[in-house]
């Protein structure tokens, strides 16, 4: 592939992360916490124990300030407060859909210039047996998938591990969902994480990995690896690494069963065509009938929704422990596609089901707040300052 062709597939970040003068400890591993403690003069013999204390306060109990850390000495708390924070992204706006879906617009702490602060969205989807949080990995996206609203944005920058885990922490804060706080039925509300928000997670591999290792650590946020799903458009070289280094469930944004069409819908296919992508799935560490790979397939009217496509899909997935998630297309202003007719979605689903695959049709959630799949874009950017302040005030008071 020529450089020019590659440039069309992948955008280059416009900016790099600038940490605030007083950095947040959120997103650091135990070893990194111990190292930071060393920087502020904590004796080597104490660092491991202190790092574990911080870990528990931050990731198990969700402390928002060092003053809450009552088993840490007063002097140490003051010392920590002088150099660090436990800040997470700031909630700029909260919208609650008729169906209970919540979307937060989050401002990322970045440098000291508020004008330059970036924003991402994060969506919580409650269901009867679970609560799923959809998390972003980039501001904007590296890729240009033609059916995706986020793909129309520039790639501003990769998120840090702290900004990724910070989204989970904000959700727990807003839902009052930390370990020693009461929840309506005594269960945690955020039970599942999907890396399906803005961005291609495998183009920000290290930060996503570090954040997910904290999410799944059972002495902290403690969400099982089986309840964490990373969705990729098919960055083949990092698929195996995901299995080996993170060990979470894998989802593939497939959307087409022939290279010509997938080249158009998911242009990254020109770099990593179907054959290579499916081989990486066959080789995915830990995939089994109990841990199936999810293939996401957006239903586009007259584009990829024929029964011939369904037949080819079944053929392609032969030998892969798979389930197929059919996603009715969520139109957005300016999109070139329409959602398949319901009738056709049902026929497609039935064909796949009869071939032995689970093929649930994803119920559209949060459509009224543009929170549904592929619609994540900071449309609040268009709001006036006054409207945004009003939304922010709402977010702070309820
Ligand atoms: S579908 Fe995912 S990878 Fe493709 S443009 Fe949208 S956010 Fe990026």
UniProtKB/TrEMBL annotation:
Domain of life: Bacteria
Coiled-coil positions: none
Subcellular location: Cytoplasm
One BP term from GO: tRNA methylation
Cofactor(s) demanded: [4Fe-4S] cluster
One Pfam family linked to the record: Radical_SAM
Residues the record lists as binding [4Fe-4S] cluster: 141, 145, 148
Family matches, as InterPro entries: Aldolase_TIM (IPR013785), Methyltransferase_A (IPR040072), RlmN_N (IPR048641), RNA_MTrfase_RlmN (IPR027492), rRNA_lsu_MTrfase_RlmN/Cfr (IPR004383), rSAM (IPR007197), rSAM_sf (IPR058240)
EC nos: 2.1.1.192
Leading EC class: transferase
GO CC term (a single one): cytoplasm
Catalysed conversion reaction: adenosine(2503) in 23S rRNA + 2 reduced [2Fe-2S]-[ferredoxin] + 2 S-adenosyl-L-methionine = 2-methyladenosine(2503) in 23S rRNA + 5'-deoxyadenosine + L-methionine + 2 oxidized [2Fe-2S]-[ferredoxin] + S-adenosyl-L-homocysteine; adenosine(37) in tRNA + 2 reduced [2Fe-2S]-[ferredoxin] + 2 S-adenosyl-L-methionine = 2-methyladenosine(37) in tRNA + 5'-deoxyadenosine + L-methionine + 2 oxidized [2Fe-2S]-[ferredoxin] + S-adenosyl-L-homocysteine
Keywords, ordered alphabetically: 4Fe-4S, Cytoplasm, Disulfide bond, Iron, Iron-sulfur, Metal-binding, Methyltransferase, rRNA processing, S-adenosyl-L-methionine, Transferase, tRNA processing
Binding site for S-adenosyl-L-methionine: 199-200, 231, 253-255, 330
Domain annotation Radical SAM core: ranges: 127-370
Active site: 121 (proton acceptor), 373 (s-methylcysteine intermediate)
Note: Reaction proceeds by a ping-pong mechanism involving intermediate methylation of a conserved cysteine residue.
Family, similarity comment: Belongs to the radical SAM superfamily. RlmN family.
Protein name: Dual-specificity RNA methyltransferase RlmN
Gene name as annotated: rlmN
């Amino acid at each position: 592939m020529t450089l020019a062709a590659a440039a069309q597939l992948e955008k280059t970040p416009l900016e790099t992360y600038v940490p605030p003068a007083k950095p947040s400890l959120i997103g650091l591993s135990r070893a990194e916490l111990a190292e930071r403690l060393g920087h502020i003069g904590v004796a080597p013999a104490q660092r491991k124990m202190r790092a574990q204390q911080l870990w528990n306060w931050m990731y198990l109990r969700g402390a928002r300030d060092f003053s809450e850390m009552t088993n840490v000495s007063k002097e140490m708390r003051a010392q920590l407060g002088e150099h660090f924070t436990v800040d997470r992204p700031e909630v700029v706006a909260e919208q609650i859909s008729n169906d209970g879906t919540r979307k937060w617009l989050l401002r990322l702490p970045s440098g000291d210039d508020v004008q330059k602060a970036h924003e991402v969205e994060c969506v919580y989807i409650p269901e009867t047996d679970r609560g799923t949080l959809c998390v972003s990995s980039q501001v904007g996206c590296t890729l240009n998938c033609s059916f995706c609203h986020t793909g129309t944005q520039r790639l501003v920058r990769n998120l840090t591990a702290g900004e990724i885990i910070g989204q989970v922490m904000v959700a727990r804060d807003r839902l009052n969902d930390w370990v020693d706080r009461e929840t309506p039925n005594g269960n945690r509300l955020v039970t599942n994480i999907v890396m399906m928000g803005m961005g291609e997670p495998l183009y920000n591999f290290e930060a996503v990995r570090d954040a997910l290792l904290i999410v799944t650590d059972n002495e902290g946020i403690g969400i099982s690896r089986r309840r964490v799903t990373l969705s990729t458009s098919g960055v083949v070289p990092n698929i195996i690494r995901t299995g080996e280094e993170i060990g979470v469930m894998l989802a593939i944004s497939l959307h087409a069963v022939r290279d010509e069409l997938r080249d158009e819908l998911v242009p990254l296919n020109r770099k990593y065509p179907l054959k290579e992508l499916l081989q990486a799935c066959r080789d995915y560490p830990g995939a089994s009938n109990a841990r199936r790979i999810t293939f996401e397939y957006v239903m586009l009217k007259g584009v990829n929704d024929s029964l011939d496509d369904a037949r080819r899909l079944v053929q392609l997935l032969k030998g892969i422990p798979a389930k197929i998630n059919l996603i009715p297309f969520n139109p957005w202003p300016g999109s070139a596609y329409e959602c398949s007719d319901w009738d056709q979605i049902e026929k497609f689903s039935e064909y796949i089901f009869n071939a032995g695959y689970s093929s649930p049709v994803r119920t559209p959630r949060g459509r009224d707040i543009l929170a549904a799949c592929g619609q994540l874009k900071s449309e609040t950017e268009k709001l006036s300052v006054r409207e945004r302040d009003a939304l922010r005030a709402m977010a702070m008071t309820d």
